[in-house]
Amino acid sequence: MSGRRGVDLRVIALPWRARVLWITLACLAAVLAALTFGIVAGSSRMGVADVWTTLLGAGSRTYQFIVFELRLPRVAAGIGVGLCLGLAGALTQTFSRNPLATPDILGVTSGASAGAVTAIVIGGGGYSVGASLLGFGIPVVATVGGLLAAAVVYGLSWRQGVDSFRLILIGIGVTAILSGLTNYLLVRAQITQATAATQWLVGSLSGVSWASVWPLAVVLAIVLPFALTQSAPLEINQLGDEFSTGLGVAVQRHRTLVIVAAVVLTSAAVSAAGPVEFVAFVAPQVARRLARTARPPLIASALVGAALVTLADVMARAALGTEIPVGVVTAIVGAPYLIWLITRPNLKERA
Amino acid sequence: MSAPAFAAVRSIRLSATATLTLGLAVVLMASLALGSNPISPALVVQALLDPASDVDSVVWGSRVPRTLLGIVVGFCLGVAGVVMQGQTGNPLADPGLFGVSAGASLAVVLGAFVLGHNSMTASLFLAMLGALVASVLVFAIATLSRDLANPVPLAIAGTAVSALLGAVISFLVLTNAASLEAYRVWVVGSLSGRGLDGLPPALVVAAVGLVLALLNVRSLNSLTLGTELAQGLGETLWRARLVGLGAITLTTASAVALAGPIGFIGLTAPHIGRALVGGNHCRLLPASGLVGAITLLACDVVGRVIGGQAEVPVGVVLATLGGVAFVVIVRRTKLAAL
């Protein structure tokens, strides 16, 4: 038994490569910068110094009100959503060994979308079923829909254990079914409800309050440390299931834990802000290229996600004048950066 | 291979061919006979043989073109899916991956945004144009990465460009009601009411794409062994990629232009084809094309029958029924990885 203990200890004390460490620190700095920027931007003027003195508890009462009541909830929600999506994306791309896999493939996003759109479209139409759905609130309906869909995907993929490839294919099928339903509802809906539903489907941070931040914080506080303990098995599993079993990883247990972690993170993010597109895909890809590792580094991916969402929200609020949902801007900010990283010839891709 | 084993393999292939042919015949007949005004099979045959009969206008006027449209679109998507998954070595790759669907959708939305309204023919040409522009953009980015041996940058560039175009679509759709109206009708995917004036040019594009796909068969087979072995077998990588990408773009662009972005077939038909005939692209290419055509037609018929006068768009039926069927198949079969 002492041999197994040794492995377990190493899970926690996984050595960090120097580059990964300083890239992670740089990402943290970027998040803090985005946070500052996110609080500075707004109708009443505030300097960077004012923001930080207020954040550290020494600002005037006006500033305290502006920062803590008006601007911080939105910025904090952005950071929370970004952390959740970035981490969930890194977990999914790693366990499935597929750079195109996002948590969407686990069914969470499409389930949440189908739930929310059903509530909006039918509820807006005045039917009693829809009205009672709306009564629970869109976040609750979305969470339930997402978790249900994920459970269905996982349950259907189970055949003496879950094989990543089968899980992906089942995920494709279930996602298709749910998005078919969503599209049908959108076509049949009144144009006002279709607009409201589209608005939700893009993902937006307008209207978030501290009440939407706390669930995110709780989920992150539980899942993030836990995800880090799965770092070593994830690394080993890159060699394939047989190798992992041979090296003493309980493959099925590990995979279930990772999937549950990704599902919970995504579901928290989606219920807070709607399905903010592209973050879960792009954050791990960017983090991996910056750190030059074979698989996405978990913490750095989460931080890139947080910086991306916060920055995109600032741009949506300030730079573009009219209020645009953050989900529109994440791709406009994230995609060109990823493309630039791809086209830099000195960074050869490792499959 | 021993003689009995050989015979067994051959009988599997025969049964796959028989299944696909029979399936196609059944859905063809169903597609001609069923709809808001059902016609008996005997009358259908009569109308086909004798263009002067009573049901002629229904059969020749609306159902034959629609059926043809379904076969072309389904076949193109099935073939494009095989080439795409073979080129990228990724089971998650669908033909829309290179920005084709997103480019086409953006062009349609832009058309509605600028002009206020799109005719179906205008949509068709806009979609074709948008699809071509977007995929050229993706190839250009992937070429800049100077690593053609690796399919990952290509797939990622495609996803990034698709997301970028998708963001622009969302922006337009959220700020402009005419765009939302055009988009939500277009994005579901449907075989009805798509203008047939654009059919001939789209068919030509599709035919060129299919020929390119055939020319790509040998390369696709060697690429399944990995790019290094493929090069060792004498494959010129850039040529194999170029032909493959051309095939994907042209077939998908014509399909998307004709019926809207129907995503599901290109993703799933190859997996069903692989379960039926195995991994050799010589057989997989036509098999997957047929699976695509059968699936699309069958779903179109179902949409006509269950919807009555207000028929359910084929994209919706495809995603729901097709999704259920796909899940069942994936659960039942032993999976053949790429």
Features:
heterodimer; A: 351 residues; mainly alpha; ABC transporter involved in vitamin B12 uptake, BtuC; 77% helix; 0% strand; globular; disordered N terminus; disordered C terminus; B: 338 residues; 14 helices; ABC_BtuC-like (chain B)
Q: Just give the CATH class of chain B.
A: Mainly Alpha
> Which residue ranges of chain B are poorly predicted, with pLDDT under 50 across at least 5 consecutive positions?
none
Number of strands of chain B: 0
- Greatest interface (CB-CB under 8 A), with counts per chain: A-B, 57 and 60 residues
Q: Bin the strand percentage of chain A.
A: under 5%
Instruction: State the distance separating the first and last CA atoms of chain B.
Output: 23 Å
Mean pLDDT of chain A: 80
- CATH architecture descriptor text of chain B: Orthogonal Bundle
The CATH homologous superfamily of chain B is called: ABC transporter involved in vitamin B12 uptake, BtuC
> Looking at CATH, which topology of chain A would you report?
ABC transporter involved in vitamin B12 uptake, BtuC
Instruction: Work out the helix count of chain A.
Output: 16
Number of domains of chain A: 1
Query: Beta-sheet strand percentage of chain B?
Result: under 5%
The major β-sheet of chain A equals:
none
Mean model confidence by pLDDT of chain B: 80
CATH class of chain A: Mainly Alpha
Main location (chain A): membrane
Pfam family, one (chain A): FecCD
Subcellular location (chain A): Cell membrane
GO biological process, one term (chain A): siderophore-iron import into cell
Q: How is this structure best described in words?
A:
Chain B: The chain crosses the membrane at residues 67-84, 96-116, 122-142, 154-178, 198-217, 284-306, 312-330. Chain B: Keywords: Cell membrane, Membrane, Transmembrane, Transmembrane helix, Transport. Chain B: Its main location: membrane. Chain B: Belongs to the binding-protein-dependent transport system permease family. FecCD subfamily. The complex is a heterodimer of chains A (351) and B (338). Chain A has 16 helices and no strands. Chain A has 351 residues and is mostly helical. Chain A has a single domain, classed as ABC transporter involved in vitamin B12 uptake, BtuC, CATH 1.10.3470.10. The longest helix of chain A is centred in the N-terminal third of the chain and has 35 residues, at 61-95. Residues 1-13 and 347-351 of chain A have low confidence and may be disordered. With 338 residues, chain B is mostly helical. Chain B has a single domain, classed as ABC transporter involved in vitamin B12 uptake, BtuC, CATH 1.10.3470.10. Chain B contains 14 helices and no strands. In chain B, helix 3 runs parallel beside helix 8, helix 4 (100-115) crosses helix 5 and helix 8 (199-215) packs antiparallel against helix 11 (237-259). Chain B is globular. The two termini of chain B are 23 Å apart. Classes of the chains: A mainly alpha (351), B mainly alpha (338). At the A-B interface, helix 8, helix 9, helix 14 and helix 16 of A face helix 5, helix 6, helix 7, helix 12 and helix 14 of B.
